[in-house]
C-alpha cells in the first residue's frame, strides 16, 4: 500500500515528527482523513493531527504529511492517472 496514492483510513499510524510537540509519539488507528487533518482513535479518545510539517509512520512506512495534504478522493483520482 502506498499512502501517497490511497487513503489511510483503517491503518495504524504513529506521529514521528511534528511542529506540535504535544502530538509527537501519538499512536492510533486512522478513523478519518480530510484535506488538512487526520483523526486518530487512541486509548484516550480521538485526536486530531494537522497535516502540516511533520512525519507519520503508516504501517511501517514513513510519510511526509505535507505530501498527503490533499483530499483522499483526490489521491485516488491521481493514482488512476499515474497508472495509465
Question: Could you please describe the fold and organization of this structure?
Answer:
Helices cover 13% and strands 42% of the residues. It has 84 residues and is mostly beta strands. It has a six-stranded antiparallel beta sheet, with no helix packed on it. The protein is globular. The relative contact order is 0.24. The model has no long low-confidence stretch (mean pLDDT 89).
SSE order and pairing:
Elements lengths: L11 E7 L8 E7 L3 E6 L2 E6 L3 E5 L2 E4 L7 H11 L2
Antiparallel strand pairs: 1-2, 1-5, 2-3, 3-4, 5-6
pLDDT < 50 stretches: none
What's the Cα radius of gyration?
Answer: 12 Å
- The share of residues in helices is 10-25%
Q: Beta-strand level of the residues, as a percent range?
A: 35-45%
* Total beta-strand segments: 6
Largest sheet: 6 strands, antiparallel
Give, in spatial order, the strands making up the sheet with the most strands: 4-3-2-1-5-6
| Mean pLDDT over the full residue set | 89
The SSE order reads EEEEEEH
The best one-word shape is globular
Spatial gap, N to C terminus: 18 Å
Number of helices: 1
Structural class: mainly beta
Task: Give a short overview.
With 84 residues, the protein is mostly beta strands.
Give the key terms:
single chain, 84 residues, mainly beta, six-stranded antiparallel beta sheet, 6 strands
Amino acid at each position: 500500500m502506498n499512502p501517497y496514492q490511497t487513503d489511510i483510513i483503517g491503518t495504524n499510524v504513529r506521529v514521528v515528527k511534528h511542529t506540535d510537540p504535544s502530538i509527537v509519539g501519538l499512536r492510533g488507528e486512522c478513523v478519518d482523513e480530510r484535506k488538512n487533518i487526520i483523526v486518530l482513535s487512541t486509548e484516550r479518545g480521538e485526536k486530531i493531527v494537522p497535516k502540516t510539517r511533520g512525519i507519520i509512520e503508516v504501517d511501517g512506512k514513513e510519510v511526509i504529511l505535507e505530501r498527503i495534504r490533499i483530499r483522499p478522493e483526490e489521491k485516488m483520482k491521481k493514482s488512476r492517472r499515474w497508472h495509465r
